[in-house]
Amino acid sequence: MSALAKTEPSSLTRELIAHAVASIEAADRFSLPFPHIFFRDFFPRDFYADLIKSIPTEGYDPITGDATRMALRLYGDNIGKVDAELRDMWAAVSETLTSSEVESAIRRQLHEGLEIRARGDKVKSVDDLRLVAKPVLYSDKDGYQIKPHPDARKKVVTMQLYCPADESQRELGTTLYQASLKGLLNVGSYGLEPVKTLPFLPNVGYAFVVLKAYHSLMKMSWHGRPKIKTPIERPRVSLLNTFYINENVGF
């Protein structure tokens, strides 16, 4: 473990939060096909190198019927399912992703999308969209796919951090789509046209506001992952940090 990973958890978490906020604030920002950002160097380099060597082996649940996607929840008491020797490190990751500082940075960078969301949800302002972050570590295997979808209504912001060891899986990123006439011509396309695939590179990620038809027909947050057809040597590992409507607070 590097010196960074050996620091006291409280000190480590503060450093991770500061680095994450700087990464989000330096993100590339886009309006099309729907508001989203793409960020780099989310974790400090030494910490990330240790992190990908410390992927938990315990506590996963199958998400798909064929077990091509496994999930390890990192919020609440679930952190106790992580291998004991790795728990402090992943607890720091969880604390970082659920911190108010990271949420505030996401809100600033995705303000355009949050304004569209607030209008569609008929709330007075983006400040009335009360959120709660729930990070999950995913491990995807050969055959994994998820069809284009805009995400469920209870999700307000979807944020995903890619965690590969190197650049060999760059083609396995998430694809963003838009509705188009060209999409209607393709069988099985749901009337959607792929716009771009966000490269699956080390320590980078993206975030977008979940927008359904009643928020904006033209900027629905269509995204997906085409089937992984080529056998991969190691799982496609990522951190999905979803900001849900905080129903305990309300609008």
Provide an overview of this structure.
Strands 1-2-10-7-12-5-4-3 form an eight-stranded antiparallel β-sheet. Strands 6-11-8-9 form a four-stranded antiparallel β-sheet. It is an alpha+beta fold. It has helices at residues 3-6, 9-25, 45-51, 87-97, 100-109, 111-121, 181-184, and strands at 28-30, 36-39, 61-62, 69-73, 131-140, 146-149, 155-162, 175-179, 192-197, 205-209, 223-225, 236-245. It contains seven helices and twelve strands. A hairpin with a 5-residue loop joins strand 1 and strand 2. It is globular and about 50 Å long.
Tell me the layout of helices and strands.
Elements: H1 3-6, H2 9-25, E1 28-30, E2 36-39, H3 45-51, E3 61-62, E4 69-73, H4 87-97, H5 100-109, H6 111-121, E5 131-140, E6 146-149, E7 155-162, E8 175-179, H7 181-184, E9 192-197, E10 205-209, E11 223-225, E12 236-245
Antiparallel strand pairs: 1-2, 2-10, 3-4, 4-5, 5-12, 6-11, 7-10, 7-12, 8-9, 8-11
Helix pairs in contact: 2-4, 2-5
Q: Class by helix and strand content?
A: alpha+beta
Strand order of the largest sheet: 1-2-10-7-12-5-4-3
Give helix % range.
25-40%
Q: Largest sheet, described in full?
A: 8 strands, antiparallel
Number of helices: 7
Q: Stretches where pLDDT falls below 50 for ≥5 residues? A: 1-9
Distance between the termini: 44 Å
Estimate what percentage of residues fall within beta strands: 25-35%
Order of helices and strands: HHEEHEEHHHEEEEHEEEE
